[in-house]
Design a protein that fits this description.
Length: 181
């Protein structure tokens, strides 16, 4: 899978063409070699995520998928989703896409760099999950548990906030219901 996507360059707000594609070894290498140390230095909550493990699960189980965004040969964002086992809390019983992990490169995070190198990476990955939900007949339903540092981001994307989930280390559960047409 590969599709052209648009992001915004932070320095001059110009639209640039990037690529959304299936997670590959080069993306994992970028995480390990370019992201990880910066995430650790800046105390980011996703610094210990293991994207090689996530990729292996995606390859071995048909209900997991993993994706990356590339711009100029460098990984800008990563997404890992589960496609079959989760159900909506908004419309009980209906399937949804569950975002297991969503990450933007350190240089695209306002908490680390201002202006970010690229804007819109997280939003693009979140919107892709909604499109994937539509593809699978789930009508745009998407859910996730947010790391504390990302709660404001999901609130600002108008996801419904269901509060702390004691089954998931008290992380806040967010969900998009079905898209109304």
């Amino acid at each position: 899978m590969q599709r052209s996507v648009q992001l915004i360059r932070g320095i001059d707000n110009q639209v640039v063409e990037a690529v959304l594609l299936t997670l590959a070894q080069n993306h994992i290498n970028d995480f390990e070699n370019l992201w990880k140390e910066q995430l650790r230095l800046y105390g980011q909550e996703d610094k210990y995520w293991d994207w090689l493990f996530k990729k292996r699960i995606s390859i071995s189980r048909d209900n997991y998928e993993s994706y990356a965004i590339e711009y100029q040969g460098k990984t800008q964002g990563l997404l890992w989703i589960e496609t079959q086992q989760h159900r909506s809390q908004v419309e009980v019983g209906h399937r949804l896409i569950y975002i297991e992990a969503l990450a933007s490169a350190p240089w695209n995070r306002r908490a680390i760099q201002r202006p970010p190198e690229l804007k819109g990476v997280g939003t693009l990955l979140l919107n892709f999950a909604r499109f994937r939900s539509l593809d699978l007949g789930y009508e745009g339903r998407v859910a996730l548990h947010a790391l504390p540092g990302a709660e404001r981001f999901y609130d600002s994307r108008n996801m419904m906030n269901f509060g702390a989930d004691s089954d998931k280390e008290d992380l806040i559960y967010f969900e998009y219901g079905r898209l109304r047409r």
